[in-house]
Amino acid sequence: MLVFDGDCGFCGYWARYWQKLTGDSVDYKPYQEVAAQYPSIPVAEFRRAVQYFTAAGERASAAEASFLTLGHARGKRFWLALYRHLPGFAAVSELTYAFIAAHREAFYHVSLLLWGRHHEPPRYELVAFLFLRLIGLIYLSAFVSFGVQAQGLIGSHGILPLADMIDNLASLIGPERFFLMPMVFWLNASDFAIHAVCWAGAGLSLLLVFNVLPRLSLFLLYVLYLSLFYAGQIFMDFQWDTFLLEAGFLALILSFATTQGAWLLRWLLFRFIFMSGVVKLQSGDPNWWNLSALSYHFLTQPLPTPLAWYAAQLPPGMLKFATGATFFVELVLPFLIFCPRRLRFVAAFGILLLQSCILMTGNYNWFNLQTMLLCLPLFDDAALQRIAPRLLIRPLQARAEHKTPRRGGMAIVGGLALLIVFCGLVKMDERFGGSPPAVAQAVDQLVDPLRIVSSYGLFAIMTTERDEIVIEGSDDGVEWREYEFRYKPGDVARRPRWNIPHQPRLDWQMWFAALEDPQSLPWFRQFMGRLLENEPTVTALLEKNPFPDKPPRYVRALIYDYTYADSREKAKGLWWNRRLLGVYFPAVQLRDE
Questions:
Q1: CB crowding 271-298: b at 16 or more within 10 Å, else e
Q2: Which runs of E-coded beta strand occur in 290-357?
């Protein structure tokens, strides 16, 4: 039995909460009702601290009584173990208890502020059910997006044929290649296999969305997307691909253990958001330090949306304020992720606002949508029931299940959780410029091929000019005709397009190629060769092929400086201005046989 001060709002608040945690294991009574049964205990002692009585009549008080009570709640017994066995923990606990007890009224109001008037043990069954359905939609977007491009990118006649990569690696690396690059394509790298993996992934995504064999679907989705990650080569070399792999693996844990899975997803969100802020400052880029980065971002980002033009016209002062707000969201709010529930809500809404702004002004496929989805575990079932429509919540509640793994399952989940947190800390240390111990690096390198923990950090350096590659073909070397891409800027009169949640991977690589020397990009030379062949799987990646009937004799690439049109030019139908900078890739033709 736990005896507390019935006249103390703070004591009653937490006694009611603990009662929901411990159920019938502990009886809760105000001392005003039971003090007469214990004449040897002064009333002042009941007022000073809570009293815990065992069935045998033994008594404990204050912090020790609190931990003995929590020892009856599932997953809380470790507090009592710390109190009894960790040196110094008991003394600090008793001092903390005494301080709070001396300021109960203030802490009562703090409790109401941080947890709400009706504080209940958090449950995540509804959160988990909804998260798994939505991560299924993210997977669906990723598989379908790559599936419609796969043959042109890595097919047998694509830019970087997968079969060639498999053959090269098999001749260079021994059996360890199966662990260094785990993928199903070691069994078969044909065009049919590529199609099969993409569309099997899409089918499994739908099974997950409709809650059919969710655990098996999650496991297979992770395996298939990991295979595409390696098979895609440079076209899959993006942070959102590893971001999806890590989130997908944690979703599998969530399907077995909701509370542990929710905390691991919070850990992923923290690392992703916080490190995105850290790398901006760590890079030393003056445009981030002087808050001018957004004055360039809306122009120079890879694939702007139509709204980016309008964002670029905002006053410099407003753009500086927005840059500062970005730092606040990325460097301050992430720490609220591990705070009491209402502070977590603040972090969630701040991150959701930032991601919404990015989504409206830039085409980042499913990236922002997945980041917004990771805010869902910052809430709990009680919060969702308050903010979501009842017509949506009721059927979801009926299908949500309480997932508590058995003892063996808990051991596996616990081991995976420790490994994921440990490797996450190692990668953060490396990103900060530290040098983790050799043992830590060895563990991280052992896990790294599975991509269940990755390093993050977006827009470390802000580009200040927009260079665009324009590819041209010719029959005679005199008259040149332009190839038009589907989404990247080309025709100055064409409005920027929306492509969320699709990711046009060739368009993205063209943005990166403009920042590099073409001689260091073997894929670009391959791409130019495919255009000379008029390879249909590759030209299908483009918006316009100016040589539909026969291949050109020559191709070349020019580089232009692109800027936004001003208001008067836009009123005339122009979105861009461009200025020729020079030749990016000289005119070439196919060699004779």
A1: bbbbbbbbbbeebebebbeebbbbbbbb
A2: none
pLDDT, tens digit, 9 for 90 and up, residues 151-164: 999 999 999 999 99
Residues 267 and 222 in one domain: yes
Residue 360 pLDDT level (bands cut at 50, 70, 90): very high
What is the count of structural domains for the chain?
Answer: 3
Do 101 and 166 belong together in one domain?
no
Cβ contacts of 423 within 8 Å, gap of 6 or more: 443, 444, 447, 452, 453
433 and 556, same domain (yes or no): no
Q: What are phi and psi of 469, to 5 degrees?
A: -90, 130
Using alpha carbons, list the distances in angstroms from residue 549 to 118, 471, 493, 529, 552: 71, 18, 26, 17, 10
Question: Which two tokens mark 470?
Answer: 């324009």
Nearest to 405 by CA among 393, 417, 419, 390: 417
The amino acid that residue 69 corresponds to is T
- Of the CA atoms within 13 Å of residue 277, those in its CB half-sphere come to 20
Q: State mean pLDDT over 197-206.
A: 98
Beta strands in 190-332 (DSSP E): none
User: Strand 466-474 relative to strand 554-564: parallel, antiparallel, unpaired?
Assistant: antiparallel
Q: Of 62, 93, 115, which residue is a domain's last?
A: 115
Q: Read off the pTM.
A: 0.93
What share of the chain has pLDDT > 90, as a percent? 88
Q: Are 1 and 24 in contact (CB under 8 A)?
A: no
Q: At what angle do helices 214-231 and 125-147 cross, to 10 degrees?
A: 40
Tell me if residue 30 falls in helix, strand or coil.
Answer: strand
Cβ neighbours around 212 below 10 Å, total: 11
Do 537 and 484 lie in a common domain?
A: yes
Q: How confident is the model at residue 386 (pLDDT cuts 50, 70, 90)?
A: confident
Nearest to 524 by CA among 477, 567, 557: 557
The tokens of 433 are what? 């410029």
User: For 399-426, how does the pLDDT look when each residue is reduced to its tens digit (9 = 90+)?
Assistant: 666 556 677 778 899 999 999 999 999 9
Domain interval for residue 35: 2-115
Banded model confidence at residue 434, pLDDT cuts 50, 70, 90: confident
Is residue 447 a contact partner of residue 294, using CB atoms and an 8 Å limit?
no
Q: What percent of the chain has pLDDT over 70?
A: 96
Q: What is the per-residue pLDDT for 593? A: 42
User: Residue 263's pLDDT is what?
Assistant: 96
Considering Cα of 282, then 284, then 289, then 295, what sign does the dihedral take?
negative
Residue identified by tokens 């969702």 is: 384
